[in-house]
Amino acid sequence: MNFKTRLTAKILTMGGVVSIPTDTIQGLTCLPKCQQSIQKILRLKRRSPEKGIILLASDTDLLTSFVQDADLLEKIQPQRYPTTYLLKANNAVSSLITGKFDTVGVRITDDPLIVYLCKKCNSALLSTSANISGKQAVDSALKLNIDFQQQLDFILTQNKDNGQASRIINLHTGERLR
């Protein structure tokens, strides 16, 4: 990986908030155990803490401490079409992650950047779209700096042709929510 990618991992491990291209769209990211960083993301996005935020991971082992039914994680594999699954959250998971729900959204991806960051940080990544709530997601560094008033710790952009949010499926009920 290049210098910017290594720097992104370092900033995340130090509790920073970064914008990265995910397997779907440009996202705002931090480590899920860093409450101050999660609060910063919510504040920057002007997002209600009731909505919850998903976790991205390169493998299920990084998600076992966040869910009640870790055995259900075995059903999740990277999908051709990115899919976020809702699972019952472990009681220790912050309400900043779950929002008003008793579930946590998780997505396994084989995206090389996410795999690298998860490995370097030894953690899943908290991820939400890089936009102010109710507005379209953005992917240029200039627009990100303008929208978030240069309060992100780092911005990593790549030319990707994704631009579409993942589908969301409740793994307990099979219900497709998006």
TrEMBL record:
Class of enzymatic activity (EC top level): transferase
GO cellular component: cytoplasm
Transferase as UniProt keyword: yes
Keyword Cytoplasm recorded: yes
Superkingdom per UniProt: Bacteria
Swiss-Prot/TrEMBL catalytic activity: L-threonine + hydrogencarbonate + ATP = L-threonylcarbamoyladenylate + diphosphate + H2O
Any one GO MF annotation of this record: tRNA binding
Predominant location category: cytoplasm
Domain YrdC-like: 2-178
Any Pfam family: Sua5_yciO_yrdC
GO biological process, one term: regulation of translational fidelity
UniProt-listed Enzyme Commission number(s): 2.7.7.87
Keyword annotations: Cytoplasm, Transferase
PANTHER family, per the entry: SUA5 (PTHR17490), THREONYLCARBAMOYL-AMP SYNTHASE (PTHR17490:SF18)
Family under the similarity heading: Belongs to the SUA5 family.
Name the record gives this protein: L-threonylcarbamoyladenylate synthase
Provenance organism: endosymbiont of Bathymodiolus septemdierum str. Myojin knoll
